[in-house]
TrEMBL record:
It comes from Perkinsus olseni (Perkinsus atlanticus). It is an enzyme of class 2 (transferase). Residues 54-242 form the Protein kinase domain. Its EC number is 2.7.11.1. This is non-specific serine/threonine protein kinase. Residues 175-210, 211-242 form the EF-hand domain. The lineage of its organism: Eukaryota, Sar, Alveolata, Perkinsozoa, Perkinsea.
Length: 242
């Protein structure tokens, strides 16, 4: 599994090589002191997936290492795609856990998200959103005035509220954030899943909004919850939700 991006997603520690440690626990996205990223809110559960999900018996996909089935959360009724992998088929468990750690860090509107994992004795389950068959559009969707106001208001929230909005943003179904997704992809000119200050400025200009805020750099800094210097997809959603 590979990872592409314009910023280094690995935090090196003394026992790492090229950012990869001996286990998934040493693989981390660079997060500024006091910051938080999407990976902080993805749960690693022990025990049976069946305690929390109703899982279809019919498989919708089968590969060399595991199978994919449709599942419904018993509490929230959220529909998920679950990939179940027998650990007896995994030759290198540490490397497999590193791949899961990488999946947790991926944050792009056109890449499937990992919500949580379950691990019992014989197998590992990876919980993804239920996949719908639709391709991203190429249309230009401008930033609206209300969304700009939400960005401005976001910086006044305390860290707990910001963290809560990040959790809400990553759990929301695609149909409820479709318009925000279009705005983000329209502003993200190089398609790397991150907004730079220049891309935000151009997005404001293209939207027809009259003025670029004088304190735009401060707004960007407050929205950038992991301190990476750019706005990731989930950070954008959290800051622009109504």
């Amino acid at each position: 599994m590979g990872l592409c991006g314009s910023k280094n997603p690995f935090k090196k520690t003394p026992d790492t090589k090229d950012g990869l440690g001996s286990s998934g626990s040493t693989l981390q996205k660079e997060v500024a002191e006091g910051g938080f990223g999407r990976a902080n809110f993805i749960l690693d559960n022990t025990g049976s997936l069946l305690e929390y999900y109703d899982v279809d018996t019919k498989k919708i996909g089968q590969g060399s290492y595991g199978s994919v089935t449709k599942a419904v959360n018993k509490s929230t009724r959220a529909v998920r795609a679950v990939k179940t992998i027998s650990k007896s088929h995994v030759k290198n468990i540490d490397r497999f856990k590193q791949e899961i750690a990488i999946m947790k860090m991926l944050d792009h509107p056109n890449i499937i998200k990992l919500f949580e994992t379950f691990e019992d004795h014989p197998e590992q389950a990876l919980n993804h959103p239920w996949v719908k068959n639709h391709a991203p559009g190429a249309e230009n969707t401008p930033l609206e005035g209300a969304q700009m106001n939400n960005l401005k208001s976001f910086r006044s929230l305390n860290k707990l509220k910001k963290a809560a909005l990040n959790i809400i943003a990553q759990q929301m179904p695609d149909e409820e954030i479709e318009q925000l997704k279009k705005v983000f992809t329209s502003m993200d000119k190089n398609g790397d899943g991150q907004l730079t200050i220049q891309e935000v400025v151009e997005g404001i200009q293209n939207s027809g909004l009259k003025d670029i805020p004088d304190d735009l750099m401060d707004i960007m800094k407050q929205v950038d919850s992991d301190g990476s210097g750019v706005i990731d997809y989930t950070e954008f959603l959290a800051a622009t939700l109504d």
